[in-house]
Design a protein that fits this description.
By secondary structure, the protein is of the alpha/beta class. Helices cover 47% and strands 17% of the residues. Helix 4 runs parallel beside helix 5 and helix 6 (151-162) crosses helix 9 (212-219).
Length: 349
């Protein structure tokens, strides 16, 4: 039977039920956050990059210092990492500046808290011997294999544009690093823009046309790798991130203090080879291609410090603008400082 015109009773009941539902939802959210903290668990997504902290993964240094149960999940590209962050499959992930810029542009709630490396010459555009490619100009009509929305994808487009080549005149194929190597060996691609360990292998039968360091010097558009964290996880796991960043800083410091000791037979190098898939003999040379930034420098304006004027925020903004120009993202944010948090590098020693 329909209610009479005065429906105050059911309206009151509805508000009461809605209030109860909201209180229950809030209680469940608080309980979930508390449970996550009580569990002390984290899933970290990583890639096959050759970096010092792989030894901390091998020795379980993060677990020892934090008391957390850490699960490491290897992913094939930065695009996969940011998708995993967006879905909640991982809480922390390694990704290049290009996929991070794309993720932030699409509203993924993450923030960069550690600069894993300044890429410099650790990524390079290499043409396969026998492909007929001797220069950037020769890439017209050729096939380049690289991971989409990666730092190498970004720099490939920048390099082509800088050389006056329409990217549409080149066939760019989306391949993950292991797929790149297989396609290279079959002769299915003419060139690739990739990082170690695959880079070291393709260099053996190819010609380097340009490195990321050279492209950055020529165009002012630098790239870097970073660790990003889900914002909600960061809010509820501050102490973990403080200790985790110190582990990262200590790993880089150990390498910087005695690079000559990091030989193929050294334990840290063997750990890097195991976790990245690189050959131990190639690891020292690969490490030398990167610049690892100490926390005191990361906290400064060149990197994470300075809010909207920070180097990372400005780099992400420039990268996003370029990706929008290329049609990779649909819109850009007014301020990429929303995806940068220097809190934990400011505490590190």
């Amino acid at each position: 039977m329909p209610f009479p015109p005065d429906q105050s009773a059911p309206s009151t009941r509805r508000r009461t039920l809605q209030g109860a539902a909201l209180m229950l939802a809030g209680s469940l959210l608080c309980s979930t956050a508390a449970l996550a903290q009580a569990r002390k668990e984290v899933v970290i997504g990583y890639q096959d990059m050759v970096v010092p902290w792989r030894h901390a993964q091998e020795t379980k240094e993060v677990e020892r210092r934090t008391g957390y149960q850490v699960t490491y999940r290897k992913l094939g590209s930065g695009a996969e990492v940011v998708r995993a962050l967006a879905s909640g499959a991982i809480q922390i992930g390694e990704a290049g500046s290009s996929p991070v810029a794309a993720a932030l542009s699409q509203g993924v709630p993450i923030e960069v808290f550690w600069v894993l490396d300044n890429i410099h010459d650790a990524e390079a555009l290499v043409a396969r011997n026998g492909s007929g490619v001797q220069s950037l100009a020769d890439l017209k009509g050729k096939k380049i294999g690289l991971p989409f929305v990666s730092t190498t994808h970004f720099h490939a487009l920048v390099a082509l544009q800088d050389a006056g080549i329409d990217p549409k005149a080149v066939r760019i194929v989306n391949l993950r690093p292991p797929e790149i190597l297989a396609a290279w060996e079959r002769g299915d691609i003419d060139a690739t823009f990739v990082w170690d360990p695959v880079l070291a292998k393709v260099k053996q039968s190819g010609k380097v046309l340009a490195t990321s360091g050279q492209i950055a010097a020529r165009t002012g558009k630098a790239t870097f790798d970073a660790l990003a964290v889900n914002k909600e996880f960061a809010r509820t796991h501050d102490a973990f991130l403080t200790q985790f960043v110190q582990v990262l800083a200590d790993a880089d410091k150990a390498y910087a203090a005695d690079k000559a000791a990091w030989t193929a037979d050294a334990a840290p190098v063997k750990s890097i080879a195991k976790w990245s898939g690189a050959e131990a003999q190639a690891v020292p040379a690969s490490l030398a291609l990167y610049a690892f930034v100490p926390p005191a420098e990361q906290a400064g304006g060149q990197w994470l410090g300075g809010a909207q004027d920070s180097g990372v925020a400005k780099s992400l903004a420039a990268t996003a603008a370029f990706l929008k120009e290329q049609g990779t993202v649909q819109s850009v944010l007014p301020d990429y400082a929303v995806g940068v948090n220097p809190t934990w590098v400011q505490r590190a020693r």
